[in-house]
From TrEMBL, chain A:
SUPFAM superfamilies on file: ATPase domain of HSP90 chaperone/DNA topoisomerase II/histidine kinase, CheY-like, Homodimeric domain of signal transducing histidine kinase, PYP-like sensor domain (PAS domain)
Catalytic activity of the protein: ATP + protein L-histidine = ADP + protein N-phospho-L-histidine
Organism: Allomesorhizobium camelthorni
Coiled-coil features, chain-numbered ranges: 215-242
Annotated positions of the 4-aspartylphosphate modification: D666
Name of protein: histidine kinase
Transmembrane segments: 17-36, 185-203
CDD domains xrefs: HATPase_CckA-like (cd16919), HisKA (cd00082)
Domain Histidine kinase: 371-594
From TrEMBL, chain B:
Domain of life: Bacteria
InterPro entries given in the database record: OxRdtase_Mopterin-bd_dom, OxRdtase_Mopterin-bd_sf
Annotated transmembrane regions: none
Alphabetized UniProt keyword annotations: Signal
Residues covered by the Oxidoreductase molybdopterin-binding domain: 76-150
The species this protein was found in: Allomesorhizobium camelthorni
Name of the featured protein: Molybdopterin-dependent oxidoreductase
Alphabetical list of Pfam families matching this protein: Oxidored_molyb (PF00174)
Keyword Signal: yes
Length: 743, 175
């Protein structure tokens, strides 16, 4: 059927030709049929002729024999008898032939004929018996013979008549008619079917060809449209991606986020679903700027104006990112107002701007101070030299001697001042060496205790395997002393001062968050106090020379400036972390000395691996954003997390359901109980529950109640996910080991 | 029956000369008149005595003196394989020195058929004397029967030479 269809399809191109060919074939078929019928008719005529002849022969020989009988009866000689015998023999052979010969099939089928012949044969048999004893002149026997044959006269005439005309011809015609009718119908139905099939197939072929053409056309159009659409879509997607921005659409009428690009997860650290779940990302915008954003959007929705503004989005604890939000406002066909916008992460450039501004300011101030100090040093040299000369020449007990000594003292103080100024302006002479920071601080112990006074408790928490720092040891000593004196001054009511040291490896990510810090290994020296702390504004200016919060006359305002100048000159970094009312931590990041034996340590190995777990963790943190962030991080590590915003709620949860494997709590929480207090209460409920503290400042102030021996652990903020993972895992593993041992 | 057959044959043989022509000769010299076949027309018998004769008569015995051939074949009047024996037409043509293109073969009744002389040479046409080893009675299509060999065992198709297979053969005329 396929082949036929294929042939039709192929020949459809030249339809006229093959329709003509088919027509010719049909005509030929009809002609052949007519000719075949004629031939059949001829054969039948021949058959009729031979049959008639055979039938006639029987009658003729019958008559001849009767003639011979007559001759014998009237003449009765030997010759007549011989003739009679011959005629008998010939007559005898005729019905036999008619009954069995091939030429007489038709007359045999005429009703009554075979019976007539058979009867004739039996009569001839009887006659033969008479003939055998026939003698010449036996007229009586001849009469008997004639009498016996008499009944056949009319019967045989009838047979030959019917053979030549009526019955046989009718039979023949019947046969022929039947054949003709059958074959005519066959031919008609054949031709009809063929032409119907042909018509149908030709229509079908034409129709399917048209259909295929139409389909092809449609498919081509759809393909073209699809291709154009894909190209357009890809073009805009690539364009958007090339900007590194997060595209979004916002239903301004409802204030609902319609769509936000998948880039959100990478840039904003919130997935598209998270962004959508809080209607828009207003919830993540830093509080003081959310109003600004809402106002801008409200204006856009009302006046159909585009909006462009910069604001911060809190993506993790402590370091919100800056974004520039450019939004085009479009009034859609349905009256809906949609904002099409792009969010650009401008944190880097913002931070660089700020860092540059700070650096430039410090640079300018440094140059100014350095220049002044240098020139002033010259003046002091002259003053001091002349004062010396005066003091020598004046009599030692003279009245003017004390004046000269006073000038000398003032000049010496002035020299000290200029030295400090020079230190800030990074123009002092440094002698950086591989310095063992722990030994250096231990050596300062006595000095510091004396300087801090009795009401300040001092603790030193040295880090394990501390690297050596590449710094000028004497200047570091003076910096640490400076920081300790500042700490003391921040704790007029007394308190606790903690010095700690630690190895820090800054990777790219951490380096970016700490402004212009070059990634690499650093030795951190932190000085924490439990004093009054600073607000953000104060800490921003803390390093500027002559900036002081102390009463006039109590400080020069150069302490932190000197520390800043020294650390920067040593290619390190200083960071202040302060919480107002709780205390301050100043961290010095000093470059580690290369070639150190501890270089073999590979801090990266522990950094890149974040061990997971499935234990149940109770998370307590008063800051919503930090809590959510910590919760997400723990969940992504596989832990089952229950998070609450305060100590009291944490205790309720602990009372309600047990089976927590870890309590993870902030140390300082506004209002209510602090982390250590919560830990004590929790111990009462679940004595075995391990506790992990986290704190953004004053690492060791958490332990001022002396509860260090209870196995409490601290994770300093900010922490990386790997740090969190490692710490949590190690606490849980230790606890499990202990429990096993106990059992 | 045998008695009857013998009698019939005798009668036939005695009767035959009645149909013969005025000047005819017998193929054999002995006087008994038992001719079954008369050959006439364009003939020139070899025997000196018969040379001018217009007809030559053959008795069964005369025919049996000519070369005998056996033929196994089928006919439309019989069933199964039949054995015919007698004189090949070409041998008879030889014997009577016949020329001409056509033979008119006549039967004891009025039947006659035209036989091209070429058939004798191309188809080994036989003038049968015996059928399955028996002489044939007149009622059995005897005494002579022209047989065309046929390969067909049994077929709905009629043998095209049926017209020329003259039985109760009595005369051959060469033209």
């Amino acid at each position: 059927m396929n082949a036929v269809a294929g042939w039709l399809k192929a020949s459809a191109k030249n339809r006229t030709t093959w329709v003509l060919a088919t027509g010719l074939t049909l005509v030929t078929l009809v002609l052949a049929f007519v000719l075949w019928q004629n031939k059949e008719r001829e054969i039948n005529v021949e058959l009729l002729r031979t049959n008639a002849w055979v039938a006639w022969q029987v009658e003729k020989e019958y008559l001849r024999f009767l003639l011979a009988v007559d001759h014998f009866e009237h003449h009765g000689g030997d010759g007549e008898l011989r003739d009679l015998m011959l005629r008998f023999e010939i007559l005898y052979s005729r019905p036999t032939v008619a009954l069995y010969g091939p030429e007489s099939s038709l007359i045999r089928s005429v009703q009554g004929v075979p019976e007539t012949f058979a009867r004739l044969l039996s009569v001839l048999d009887e006659i033969e018996a008479k003939l055998n004893t026939l003698a010449p002149g036996d007229t009586e026997a001849a009469k008997q013979i004639r009498h016996a044959l008499k009944p056949f006269e009319s019967a045989l005439t009838e047979v030959s008549m019917s053979a030549s005309r009526g019955e046989v011809a009718r039979q023949l015609n019947e046969r022929l008619d039947k054949l003709q009718v059958t074959s005519t119908w066959l031919l008609i139905s054949l031709v009809g079917t063929a032409s119907a099939l042909l018509t149908f197939l030709s229509f079908e072929a034409a129709r399917s060809r048209r259909l295929a053409e139409w389909e092809g056309e449609q498919r081509r159009k759809v393909d073209e449209a699809n291709r154009a659409l894909q190209q357009s879509e890809a073009r805009y997607r690539h364009l958007v991606e090339s900007t590194g921005a997060v595209p979004y659409t916002l239903d301004l009428s409802l204030g609902m986020l319609d769509y936000i690009g998948p880039q959100a997860e990478k840039i904003l650290s919130y997935t598209s679903e998270e962004c959508r779940s809080c209607r828009d990302w207003n919830g993540y915008v830093v509080a003081e700027e959310a109003a600004k954003l809402s106002a801008a959007r409200g204006r856009a929705a009302q006046d159909l104006v585009d909006a462009e503004l910069e604001y911060r989005i809190a993506v993790a604890a402590n370091n919100p990112i800056w974004v520039r939000d450019t939004m085009k406002t479009v009034c859609e066909a349905g009256g809906r107002v949609t904002g099409y916008g792009l969010l650009f992460d401008i944190t880097g450039s913002k931070r660089q701007e700020q860092a540059l501004a700070t650096a430039q300011k410090m640079e300018a101030v440094g140059q100014l101070t350095g220049g002044v100090a240098h020139d002033f040093n010259n003046l002091l040299t002259i003053i001091l030299g002349n004062a010396d000369a005066l003091a020598e020449r004046l009599p030692s007990k003279g009245q003017l001697q004390p004046l000269a000594q006073l000038i000398k003292l003032a000049a010496k103080r002035g020299a000290e001042l200029t030295n400090r100024l020079l230190a800030f302006s990074r123009r002092q002479t440094l002698d950086p060496n591989a310095t063992d920071v722990i030994r250096l601080i231990c050596g300062m112990d006595e000095l510091l205790r004396r300087a801090l006074g009795e009401h300040v408790e001092m603790a030193f928490v040295p880090g394990d395997g501390l690297w050596k720092a590449l710094v000028d040891a004497a200047q570091l000593e003076s910096a640490v002393l400076n920081l300790c004196l500042n700490a003391r001054d921040a704790m007029p009511e007394g308190g606790r001062l903690t010095i700690s040291t630690m190895n820090i490896h800054f990777d790219q990510e951490m380096g970016a968050r700490y402004d212009d810090l070059v990634p690499g290994r650093y030795v951190m020296v932190a000085v924490s106090d439990t004093g009054t702390g600073m607000d953000e504004k104060t800490s921003a200016h803390a390093f500027e020379p002559f900036f002081t919060t102390k009463e006039v006359g109590r400080g020069s305002g150069l302490g932190l400036s000197m520390v800043y100048g020294f650390v920067k000159q040593s290619k390190g970094h200083v960071k202040i972390y302060s919480e107002l009312g709780h205390g301050t931590t100043v961290r010095l990041y000093l470059p580690h000395a290369p070639g150190d034996a501890d270089d073999l340590e590979k801090p990266d190995d522990s950094g890149s691996f974040a061990p997971k777990g499935s234990e149940k963790v109770l998370l307590v943190e008063d800051d919503d954003m930090v809590r959510n962030h910590a919760q997400d991080q723990l969940r992504s590590l596989g832990y089952h997390v229950v998070s609450v915003p305060s100590g009291s709620e944490a205790l309720e949860v602990l009372k309600r359901e047990d089976a927590f494997d870890l309590l993870f709590t902030d140390v300082v929480m506004r209002g209510g109980m602090s982390g250590p207090q919560l830990a004590d209460e929790a111990k009462r409920l679940c004595p075995d529950l391990p506790v992990l503290f986290t704190s953004g400042y004053a690492e060791d102030t958490a332990f001022r109640d002396g509860s260090l021996d209870c196995g409490l652990q601290l994770l300093p903020k900010p922490y990386r996910k790997q740090d969190l993972a490692a710490k949590v895992r190690s606490i849980l593993d230790d606890w499990q080991k202990r429990n096993l041992g106990r059992k | 029956m045998r008695q009857i057959n013998a009698l019939t044959l005798a009668i036939v043989l005695v009767t035959l000369p009645l149909f013969g022509a005025k000047s005819s000769v017998h193929a054999s010299d002995h006087g008994a008149v038992l001719a079954v076949l008369t050959v006439s027309g364009l003939i020139s018998p070899r025997a000196e005595a018969d040379r001018d004769a217009e007809e030559v008569d053959f008795s069964i015995e005369d025919l049996e003196k000519l070369p005998q051939t056996e033929l196994r074949t089928h006919t439309d009047w019989t069933e199964g394989l039949q054995i015919f024996s007698g004189v090949l037409l070409k041998d008879l043509i030889e014997a009577v020195g016949a020329s001409g293109k056509e033979i008119v073969a006549r039967a004891l009744n009025d039947y006659a058929a035209n036989i091209p002389v070429s058939d004798a040479y191309e188809l080994s046409v036989l003038i049968a004397i015996k059928h399955n080893g028996q002489y044939m009675r007149i009622r059995d299509k005897g005494p002579l029967w022209i047989i065309y060999p046929s390969a067909q065992t049994s077929s709905s198709k009629v043998n095209p030479y049926n017209d020329r297979m003259v039985w109760q053969l009595s005369r051959l005329e060469f033209r």
